[in-house]
């Protein structure tokens, strides 16, 4: 009989105790893995979303807060050397009294050209898209769900003056990430200005911010410094800065729970250490018999390592499966309210499954290696005990 078979039979002799150990172990690993999967998926979706944003944009600040800025500033900014294109952006937030959701409103007259990252559905009305109907609106699937609407229905909104206006829903869209389009409403520019309160007369038109495209990506920081020096009242934001901010935010929030789960893993390992360090009389007798029939110290250590590997790998795999189901099947009901933040995005969105090899390796290294180390030293103490003393 080889050592692997003996290890399996040894575990089966006390299967009830081993099953309870695996269940507790899997729950601890599952909580840690849930945090890892959730934050990794959120970072990945955010990175995919940010890929389609302009490399640089400028905003008007007043009293430290973002305020609308004049569209005419684009002419002055476009004269800076190295800038390829400058265009104003019209966007803002709209509180929907009917559903209690905070929706994002974006204005553009050419959605099929200027918003290339949108992936229109097949049921989108191509004729109305080409006509650019003034009363046409594109909406996210979340808007359709919360308002109980379909393509061809009319979406009613209150403009900034409280006047109710209606727009025909001419299309809906999907994208790489629901974070981008789930709560989005796209209107023609003038209609969007009415909804979010941007002045749109012929003498002084306002926008939310101005996006800047640059010929050489290596010059983004330099051109940003030029804009900052020439227009002190403007704030320059780069795509790299925004991406770094989101990554730091998700890492900080996820780190809180990772530290908590690490403490849980540590407490569990300490418990296992205490249990393993005090070998029962039956376990001592078993080790004594094995040594008496010719087993060497390395054979006993390999036996205990094999038993520990079977338990830890089984529990880790089970914990990973539980974490995957919790995060990507049930949409992480335990972690999501805490990791997303105090302002929950309406409508709700589902995370796309994303699990990297690095995540799996980190989970395995944290859960298996310390457990094996926690069982090795007590096993060594038992293996070095004389056979006669162990069997007494």
TrEMBL record:
Entries under Pfam families matching the protein: FtsX (PF02687), MacB_PCD (PF12704)
UniProt record similarity statement: Belongs to the ABC-4 integral membrane protein family. LolC/E subfamily.
Membrane topology, from the record: Multi-pass membrane protein
Name of protein: ABC-type transport system, involved in lipoprotein release, permease component
Keyword terms: Cell membrane, Lipoprotein, Membrane, Transmembrane, Transmembrane helix
GO annotation, biological process: lipoprotein localization to outer membrane
Organism of derivation: Bernardetia litoralis (strain ATCC 23117 / DSM 6794 / NBRC 15988 / NCIMB 1366 / Fx l1 / Sio-4)
ABC3 transporter permease C-terminal domain segment(s): 262-385
InterPro entries listed in its UniProt record: ABC3_permease_C, Lipoprotein-release_system, MacB_PCD
Lineage: Bacteria, Pseudomonadati, Bacteroidota, Cytophagia, Cytophagales
Subcellular location: Cell membrane
Residues of the MacB-like periplasmic core domain: 26-229
Any single GO CC term annotated in Swiss-Prot or TrEMBL for this entry: plasma membrane protein complex
TM helices/strands, residue ranges: 20-38, 256-273, 309-330, 351-373
């Amino acid at each position: 009989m080889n050592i692997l078979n003996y290890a399996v039979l040894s575990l089966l002799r006390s299967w009830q105790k081993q099953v309870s150990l695996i269940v507790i172990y899997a729950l601890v690993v599952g909580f840690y893995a849930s945090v890892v999967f959730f934050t990794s998926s959120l970072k990945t979706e955010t990175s995919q979303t940010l890929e389609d944003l302009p490399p640089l944009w400028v905003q008007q600040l007043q009293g430290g807060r973002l305020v609308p800025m004049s569209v005419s500033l684009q002419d002055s900014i476009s004269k800076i050397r190295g800038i390829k294109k400058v265009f104003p952006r019209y966007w803002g937030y709209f509180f929907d009294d009917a559903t209690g959701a905070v929706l994002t409103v974006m204005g553009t007259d050419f959605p099929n050209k200027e918003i290339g990252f949108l992936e229109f559905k097949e049921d989108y009305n191509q004729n109305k898209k080409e006509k650019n109907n003034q009363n046409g609106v594109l909406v996210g699937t979340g808007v359709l769900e919360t308002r109980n609407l379909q393509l061809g229905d009319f979406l009613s909104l209150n403009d900034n003056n409280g006047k109710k206006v209606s727009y025909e829903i001419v299309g809906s869209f999907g994208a790489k990430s629901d974070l981008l389009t789930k709560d989005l409403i796209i209107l023609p520019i003038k209609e969007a200005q009415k909804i979010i309160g941007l002045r749109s007369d012929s003498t002084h038109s306002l926008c939310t911010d101005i996006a800047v495209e640059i010929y050489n990506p290596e010059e983004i920081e330099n051109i940003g410094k030029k804009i900052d020096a020439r227009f002190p009242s403007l704030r320059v934001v780069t795509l790299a800065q925004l991406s770094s901010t989101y990554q730091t935010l998700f890492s900080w929030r996820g780190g809180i729970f990772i530290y908590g789960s690490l403490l849980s893993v540590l407490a569990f390992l300490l418990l296992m250490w205490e249990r393993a360090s005090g070998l029962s009389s039956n376990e001592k007798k078993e080790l004594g018999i094995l040594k008496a029939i010719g087993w060497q110290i390395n054979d006993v250590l390999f036996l205990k390592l094999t038993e520990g590997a079977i338990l830890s790998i089984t529990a880790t795999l089970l914990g990973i499966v539980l974490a995957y189901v919790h995060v990507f099947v049930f949409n992480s009901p335990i972690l999501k309210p805490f990791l997303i933040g105090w302002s929950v995005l309406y409508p709700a969105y589902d995370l796309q499954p994303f699990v990297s090899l690095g995540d799996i390796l980190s989970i395995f290294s944290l859960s298996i290696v310390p457990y094996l180390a926690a069982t090795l030293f007590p096993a060594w103490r038992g293996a070095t005990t004389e056979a006669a003393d162990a069997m007494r």
